[in-house]
Amino acid sequence: MQNNDKHLHEPRIQITKRGREAMPWYKAWGVRAAAIVLALIVCAVIIVFLTGYNPIRVYSEMLKGTFGSSRKIWNTLQKLAMLLCISLAVTPAFKMKFWNIGAEGQTLVGGLAAAACMIYFGETVPGIILFPLMAASCMLAGMIWGIIPAYFKAKFNTNETLFTLMMNYVAMQIVSFCIVFWENPKDSNTVGVINRMTEGGWLPTIFGQKYLLNILIVAVLTVAMYIYLRYSKQGYEISVVGESENTARYVGINVKKVILRTMALSGALCGIAGFLLVSGTDHTINTNTVGGMGFTAIMVSWLAKFNPIVMALTSFLIVFLERGAGEIATTFQLNESVSDILTGIILFFIIGSEFFVQYKINFRKGHKEEKV
Amino acid sequence: MKAAIELKNITKTFGSVYANKNVSLSVNKGEILSILGENGSGKTTLMNMISGIYFPDEGQIFIDGEEVIIRSPKDAFKYKIGMIHQHFKLVDVFTAAENIILGLEDGKKFDIKAAAKRVKEIGERYGFIIDPMKKIYEMSVSEKQTVEIIRVLYRGADILILDEPTAVLTPQETQKLFAVLRRMRDDGKSIVIITHKLHEVLSLSDRVAVLRKGEYIGTVNTAETDEIKLTEMMVGQKVSLNIERDEPENPKERLEVRHINCISREGVPLLKDISFTAHSGEILGIAGIAGSGQRELLESIAGLQRLNDGEIFYHDPKSGKVENLRDKTPMQIRDMGVRLSFVPEDRLGMGLVGNMDIVDNMMLRSYRKGKSVFLERKGPRDLAEEIIERLKVVTPSANTPVRRLSGGNVQKILVGREIASSPTVLMAAYPVRGLDINSSYTIYNLLNEQKRRGAAVIFVGEDLDVLLELCDRILVLCGGKVSGIVDARATTKEEIGLLMTKLQEEGQNNAE
Fold first, then answer.
1. N or C: which end of chain B has fewer CB within 10 A?
2. Distance between CA atoms of B304 and B326, rounded to whole angstroms?
3. Which of A14, A16, A247 sits opposite B350 (nearest CB)?
4. Which fold would CATH assign to domain B251-339+423-512?
């Protein structure tokens, strides 16, 4: 037999999708854990190369930055709660395949509503009326910001990604405008801490922890969202619309109604996040109050595959990376970019590991070599 | 006779599933070989390995006696192998000639005129009729297929593989295609056609290779075999090919469609003045070339398509009342007490949600029941278990996402759910597409069962032989119009074939 294929050889690597035989869950989590370990090793190599520090020391500083003292632990939990709250808010929309990247703006107008209530009613209206009023107006503000793009999507099929993105800028400009009105002290161009003396409209401190109430509220919301998506009729409708609009039409689901209702919910939850940020955390407002969490939340939600309970884990991961990276940047007097590099590498590995969960890679020998 | 291609011990697996297992067969020069097998028997996978789409896990391919390695369609063309896929791969806005030379690297200057001339020559040589300058989107399905075949010939292929080439053609177009294929064979080319239609195998091919569940069963000379023997090879057991058909019992008017018209958003008429009546206890077949308005017609009845004109009356068998279903949503139709079931053509894109498990798919129709804001999964779970058992659905459990099931099992889940509500009208669009023979007969039996129960069954089919055997009457659609309603017991395939293209030709004559 003449061999005319010297320049041609058989493919050696085959990638196949794991369709019918999905990976068992423990293996899938094993792959993910391996990815994190691998990411830490790669980061260690880079740390040594760029800075010459001992990577173990760097990692222990990261842990310290997150858990170093009880104050740091509470700060971490608070950060986590805020990020998780916004992630919960975007989840129903994304589950419906409505690309809501406007959580930043929806949260900001919620915060703005809270600040307005604090400034105008904080020192006159008693707490028992004030707090429900604040919660309601924050939810309403977020809801309006969510419903506007949803209405145009349902009515005219506009692109919700662009629409929600633009609404972020509108929200920011409105906040800038209000700061001019509310600035305190004069000409500082900031609002300053609202009601510093009376603490009017500040969410109360419970059990001696000022963030505990925030954390508890978000914990309750997490469980509620899990139940809503999984066991309620509305949650089921969201899944059907998200998976296939044609199926939804076929079984008689009013798709427009579901889009509007879900975005109202998504916006209202963002409003609550804004409430907790302004009334429960910062006691002031500026255009950076949300600080990009509206976008980070999208990643949290997707990484968790829209499962609210898993989202607690993924938002912890993100917060840990951010706080840890910030800590090493100050301790070792490194440029902030180093921590960004580390965060980037770790996320790359975590997201990349999903490929190995979804696909199978076969390495094969050429059969001819075997025979020889 | 010399073998043009020889396959030796070819094996291909997808995960743990064997798509092909130890298949050895050969194609001679100047012959037409049919690859016969049920859906999912591995015919297309096998041919994809010859044309460079897949690479075999094990085994060897010989061309003209020499072992070759085919890693891509480009390699395949080097060995003069060309495949015409079931789903055409053409650029709609390009002309025939542009599509034919697309991606061709022969080192020559791009010359569309010369190409068009050669295209015409090839056409004349084998008896194709083709206009090289016609755009693809202006072409009929059969013209598009012609472009695909010429594209392969243009690249000098000597071995042509056609995957289910007749699935979208009318009987008359099929005859024309077969004539062309015979001419190519006489010209010395080797033709492989993949099919599961027995009568085509018998009328066209020289030899038949049979696959079953990925394994090679054998090759027989067409002259020495018949339908019964081939079916036995294909299925592995004796199968009665007769579909039961009872006389309709006490037929009464159930659904009356009067002069409906439907125009798409772009202003294209989809349904033109359609009128018919479906009776209880009968199966009304709907025949027509794909895209003649079948989908729009069923969706109009189901309340999914806005009508521009016309009425749809439902005769309630209990109260005797007559109600107009026009402009009602699916919800309103159900609230009126009309038990209308619909098995759509797009099973996973419309009838079911692929990523949801069987239980959640059972709820699609019924989840709203009750006042609670929470879902009730017990009833749907019982229904799922019942359907799995009664229709012998192969699935690991009722919690398996339906997209992981095979085509036949997906369809059983869908049909099972739709008949669970004891419908008075049952509409099914291409319910056996992609199913193996045994699953197809399960579906036919279920439709017959509903007919005996007194439901009005509307069955949109593509296999005319099945329509003729199963239905009581057949309505033929052509370009969105009814071109005839015939008695299935008295008509012939040829008559239906003519009706399928009748109005088009009339239209063309009028235009001229």
1. C
2. 10
3. A247
4. Rossmann fold (3.40.50)
Structure ipTM:
0.76
* B235 shares contact with chain A (CB less than 8 Å): no
Helix (H, G, I), strand (E, B) or coil at B424: coil
Crossing angle for the helix pair A336-358 and A308-331, to the nearest 10 degrees: 150
Q: Mean pLDDT highest for which of A227-231, B117-121, B506-510? A: A227-231
Token readout for A54 is 């001992």
Q: Which of B66, B351, B368 sits opposite A2 (nearest CB)?
A: B66
CA gap B395, B331 in Å, rounded: 31
Helix (H) or strand (E) holding B121: helix B112-126
Contacts of residue B418, Cβ cutoff 8 Å, sequence gap at least 6: B341, B342, B343, B351, B426
Mutate to test the interface with A, among B22, B67, B70, B334 (most CBs of A within 10 A): B67
Strands (E), B307-432: 309-315, 322-324, 340-343, 425-429
pLDDT band at A59 (very low <50, low <70, confident <90, very high): confident
Q: Going by C-beta distance under 8 Å and a sequence separation of 6 or more, which residues neighbour residue B118?
A: B154
Predicted pLDDT at B505: 56
Give A371's pLDDT tier (boundaries 50, 70, 90). very low
Place of tokens 């700060």: A75
According to DSSP, residue B223 is labeled G
The H or E element spanning position B278 is strand B269-279
Q: Which residues pair with B313 in a beta bridge?
A: B256, B324
**CB A240 to CB B404 under 8 A?**
no
Cis peptide before A185 (omega within 30 of 0): yes
Rg of chain B in Å (alpha carbons): 25
**pTM: predicted TM-score of the whole model, two decimal places:** 0.78
> B218 in the Ramachandran plot: left (φ > 0), alpha (ψ -120 to 50) or beta?
left
Q: Which residues of A touch B68 (CB under 8 A)?
A: 4-5
From the list A233, A247, A249, which residue is nearest B353 (CB)? A247
Helix, coil or strand: residue A218: helix
Q: At residue A222, what are phi and psi to the nearest 5 degrees?
A: -60, -50
Q: Cβ–Cβ contacts within 10 Å for residue B69, how many?
A: 18
- Per-residue pLDDT tens digits for B63-102: 888 888 888 888 888 888 888 887 788 888 988 888 888 8
CA distance A349 to B112: 49
Q: Count of domains in chain A?
A: 1
Long-range contacts (CB closer than 8 Å, 24 or more residues apart) made by A20-28? A20/B15, A20/B17, A20/B404, A21/B15, A21/B16, A23/A357, A28/A357
Bigger pLDDT: A62 vs A107: A107
- The backbone torsions φ and ψ at residue B12, rounded to the nearest 5 degrees and listed phi first, read -140, 130
Instruction: Tell me which of A194-198, B6-10, B260-264 is least confident.
Output: A194-198
Superfamily of domain B3-235: P-loop containing nucleotide triphosphate hydrolases (3.40.50.300)
Residue A26 resides in a domain: no
Any idea where the domains of chain B sit in the sequence?
A: 3-235, 251-339+423-512, 347-421
| B306 phi, psi to nearest 5 deg | -75, 135
Distance CA B255, CA B237 (A): 40
Which two structure tokens, joined as six digits, stand for B292? 């003649």
